[in-house]
Amino acid sequence: MRLLVSLLLCLCIPAALAAEANAPKLDIGKGGQCVKDTQWMRKNHMHMLKHQRNETVRKGVRVEAEALKACVECHASTSDNSVTAREDSFCVGCHRYAAVKIDCFECHASKRKAEVASKEVK
Amino acid sequence: MSDIDTQRRQFLKTSAGAAAIAIAPGMMLYQTAQGDTQAASSTVRWGMLVDTAQCKEGCNDCVNACNKENGLSGKTGTTDSQWIRKIEIKDVSSGRALSLPMMCQHCEHPPCVDVCPTQASFKRADGIVLVDRHLCIGCRYCMMACPYKARSFVHETLTDQNPDVPRGKGTVEACSLCVHRIDKGQIPACAEACQNKAILFGDLNDANSEIYKKVRSVASVQIRADLQLNPGVRYQGL
Fold it and tell me: ipTM of the assembly?
């Protein structure tokens, strides 16, 4: 029994390490946690955003912390203010790894509000 | 009941109280961090009253403010989005000329909503007619149905949108009465920008609002009232 457990552990540890090594390295911007923990967000952010978008557009319920705008505000890179500009940008990095196309930013701004406003002034 | 038991109860009571105090400030912080979590109310009917006597010919302040607020290009070609336009009209027999802004009239019975095959075109509880771009397939039925030609189709890929106003290629859009500003308690950009205060914005159902009183005291008309769509935008002196 002990042998079996140790054998399983031996198999699992390298697998876990390998998964960590292959995982995308992201530029998380300012980062921080405002809605739920990282693991929950990784798994469920799309459902949360889809629920929130319907509540906001159709009913006018605006929960600031759950808005896409708020995600961008914290997670945009501190160097280029964007969540999509580079391969390791917050949204692009994971979506490329998971091979899932992001449609959000065809309409929504992928940059911080401050960045968009400064462009308008110029 | 033994002495130990009562002590235990007392301990539980006080610790529960301490926990409640510890949670309370956190909850307060959470609530202030939220935006307006209230849904749009059906007791409200947002509308506008345009005083054509105050609207000056050649003045484009409302149009420019709209373009800036919503990130429109400001071009007026056939494939460019225009959410608000200035119209110059003239009565041929008397020669009386007028200038007025035209935009989505936010009808109570909007034809654009009737014809939409995906329910993307909808009327919010507070009377604002919007396009849910998540559902819009770009068929443009609503553009054909609208008697005011208020809607535009986005033909080209867009970049650098205003974070408050998402817009994208392949969808129909129109005046949203600056819904993102209304939800923050502000008035639409065009009404704010008009120097002559020709655009009066407010709640048509609120007996204390300026627009409610003015609509009841001065003559105003709805454009194409014969269609019985009951638009939320009214014109004075037309």
Answer: 0.78
